[in-house]
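Sample entry (624 residues):
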Amino acid sequence: LRWTVKDAQGRTRAVVNFEMPVEEWWSDLQPAPAETIDLRLYPDGKKEVALSAYDMFSPARHDAYALAFVTKDGRADRATCAFAAKPNECFCGTGERFAKMDLYGRTVQLYNQDGQGVNNRRTYKNIPFYLSSEGYGMFLHTTYFAKISMADHSTRSAQVMVEEPVIDTFIIGGDTPERILYHYRQLTGFPSMPPTWSFGTWMSRMTYFSADEVQEICDRMRAEGYPCDVIHLDTGWFKTDWLCEWKFNLERFPDPKGFIQGLKKQGYRVSLWQLPYIAYDAAQYQEAAENSYISKSESKIQGASNFSVNDYAGTIDFTYDKATEWYKGLLKELLDMGVTCIKTDFGEDIHMDATYHDADPKALRNIYSLYYQKAAYEITKEVCGEGIVWARSAWAGCQRYPLHWGGDSASTWDGLAGSLKGGLHFGLSGFAFWSHDVPGFHSVPNFMNTRLSEDVYVRWTQFGVFSSHLRYHGSFKREPCLYPTIAPIVKDWLNLRYRLMPYILQEAEKTTRSGYPMLRAMYLMHPDDLVCRHIDDQYYFGDDFLVAPVMNSQGVRSVYLPEGKWVNFFTKETFEGPCWLKDIQVPLEEMPVYVRQGASIPMYPQAVACTDEMDMSKAINVVF
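Predicted structure, serialized as tokens:
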């Protein structure tokens, strides 16, 4: 039996062959093989994507089932499917994956959890989507725990397993990876444009403890000429550090509204940290528990991180509309004071043994971040007129509520490398805007107190300047004025960031109506260049910049230039690709940055203290 499915234009979209078991076989030592299915899909009417079904020989069982389910206690419990994979096929995406660009030979778990850094298999942001070099994307429409094996369990299959009885997948076609990502965004949502000021410098540390301390930092940044738009208050603005109650400590912040408005007059926006868990000691606990605004559980979460000693009674239940409105009310009081961004930290973990208003915890865990960030984004946009969050966790659809950062990286070279890998895979998973803690979050070996290496500080700053968003943050002091030896270098790079602001805004706007992210993997721009399929330490920044961060103390790296003519952004030296520039010696104040020859880059002609001082009509186009 053969079925052919065609669309309204007459294009073949699927071919199904049902083959019945043969009645005679050469040996009676084994039973007759089961019925198999031969299904070939044509998501764009051209490219074939075949389900993988081979035989029932025991060693091949890993890739023998094109579609199947697993029973438990007599009922369907898990579902699987498998797509045929080729020996030279490449895979990428699946979220903020801290791994090499080509995921061939890897199995990933789609289960949000604290990534505990950027150099392991755990990740804060799992996205049930991958891109294949064979010209298709696969979106697994689920919120449950799932696994994707990309030619790992079987080198001839890309296998998907989900812990629910039904498997729901979208096979997405397109002539280029960008078009596939565009179609994926048509399904799950396009990113919105963040506010202009958000593209400026953010300054933060863990943590500022008083209005006087913050004011001193802000005044010094302005006096010494460091451009900056945002000051972020992390865990220390509450009555007790880490005890999130959405209220300022009035002893250390005696006039919060006046303090915030004063900073606004200096050109600073204020961002505040918080988290979605209610502690037993929090002022809101009784109200939240009595009104079922938090999950109901017999157990408790011992702290939300390694820094907190709070016992958390429950997770805010965003499946309950009244709880969502209650949470928005907590944020509204802060936004009405003049706060312009809420850091929606955590969200990867929820009480798994608890009761929620309208969701099974197994179905809620991964998508919890979407509910959480949506609520914070919506109330911010309602009060401030512009929507934004600063989020750590994510699932499919969270790209609608920018922006996200890469979690708790170590202030080391491997922390820098891991961050970039995660950001590139994240961009190949449908997200446009992404950032990272400059120059890494925590110190090594002493988590809180080891002074970081100054060359790491500079190199990470350079990477940050050519990132979607630039935020300094970490467990130790991060303000450049406190590093006098390298301060002039850092100041030059921050001023360059603001000179590039017209280009950054132009490219950011493009990402909201295309399939492109701000940071683009080389593969995304050159899918037919086999070298680019494996590069994960350089990238495109928008359409025209090729950026290669330096990731070692020796200041040496090689750069691959793809086809075309390229101009060194700083020296104006010209190169013709494809070619390798081997073992370039890069002084600390420089970074390899190249521009497409002929590109016209809009730039701002003068130094400013913040984006409020910019008149974009003054931008000039510089042709390379």
